[in-house]
Amino acid sequence: MEAFVLNYNGGEKILKCLSRLSSEIGEITLVDNASTDNSVELVRKNFPKVKIASAGENIVARAFNEPIMNSASDWVLIMLGDMMATKGFLGKLARHAGPGVFAVSPKIVRMGGGTDWAATELSFRLGQPSISWNTQAEISAPRREAFPPITGLFNARLFRELGGFDALYSPTYYDDVDLGYRAWKRGWKCVYEPASVVEHDHDAAIGKAFSNVKTRAYRNKHLFVWKNADRLTLAQYALSLPFYLAAGTLLRGPPCLLGFLEAFGRLDEARARRAEDEMRRLLSDREIREAVAGQRGQ
Questions:
Q1: What's the distance, Cα to Cα, between the start and end of the chain in Å?
Q2: pLDDT per position as a tens digit, 98-107
Q3: Contact 224, 178 (CB under 8 A)
C-alpha cells in the first residue's frame, strides 16, 4: 500500500500532515501542484524518505493520476495536504478493501469542531444533481455512499481502469463526484467508514488559487449530467433546464447562466466521454440510487 498526499503551498501545515500520516504508513509520495512557497523544500529536509512527484502546473486532483498510474500498489491512499490522520484510521479503512469495492472514505471533521464529510448521497431532481454530505447526520455504522472525497483508500487497479480524475472538469469541482459515480455505473462500490476519522485543517486553497469558482462549479454540474446521466434523467434535465437557468440566474446571479454557457463550449468533449463510459455501464441512475441507499455497509 502506498500513500499520495496533494500539496499546493502547504507551508508548515504539510509537515503536520506528513508527521501524522507517517505513523500509519511507510511509503508516501508528496504530489506537488507547482507550489510557489517553500513547502517542497521543507518536506525534503524533514522527511527525506518521502518521494516527490511534481506537476508542471496546479491541476488539483488530476495531479494524482500519473503517480497512481505508475504505482505498483493494489490499493492507494490519497489525501489532501490539509488533512490530518488520526491513530488507526488507515486500518479501519483497509478492512473494507475487498473485491468489487472501488473506494473507502473516512469521516472528515473540522479541526475547530463539526463535520465536513460523512457518507455522500447523490440524487437527480428533475434531472439536476443534488448532493448531500450528511454533515449533520449521526452515522455510526459503515454504509455505502455515492462518491468518495479526495481523501480515502482507493482500489488502484480500478482507479487506473477509470483513467483517474477527468480533465473535463479542469481545474476542479465535480471531478470527485464524477469518479465515484463512474465506478458505480460499472457496479463498483464506494463505502463510508465512520470509525475512521481524519481532521481537516481547512485553508480555502482552491478559492485562493483560481478565479470564477462559482461559474466553474455551475459549469461542471452540467458537464456531469451530460456525461453521466442516463436517458431518463437527461430527458428530465432537458425539460427543467429553462426554468433552472431562469430561476438560478435570478436567485443566485450571473454565474448560474455563465456556467451553463461555459459548459456548452465543452459539450462535444462531454459527449465523447459519455460514449466511452456508456459502453461499460451496468447500472442506471435509479439502480445506483437504490444500491447506495438499500444497504448500510459493504
A1: 21
A2: 999 999 999 9
A3: yes
Cα 118 to Cα 138: distance, rounded to the nearest angstrom? 9
Task: Find all residues with CB under 8 Å of 240, minimum gap 6, and list them.
Answer: 126, 127, 128
Which residue's entry shows cell 505508475? 70
Cα 70 to the center of its chain, rounded Å:
20
pTM over 0.85: yes
In contact, 177 and 190? CB cutoff 8 Å: no
Contact 76, 55 (CB under 8 A): no
Q: Which residue has the cell 457518507?
A: 119
Beta bridge partners of 69: none
Give 252-285 pLDDT, tens digit per residue.
999 999 999 999 999 999 999 999 999 999 999 9
In this prediction, residue 210 has a pLDDT band, given cuts at 50, 70 and 90, of: low
The contacts of residue 220 (CB under 8 Å, 6+ apart) are: 169, 173, 174, 175, 259, 263
Sign of CA dihedral 174, 177, 180, 183: negative
Alpha-helix runs per DSSP H in 8-133 = 12-21, 39-46, 65-69, 89-94
Per-residue cell: 198: 481524519
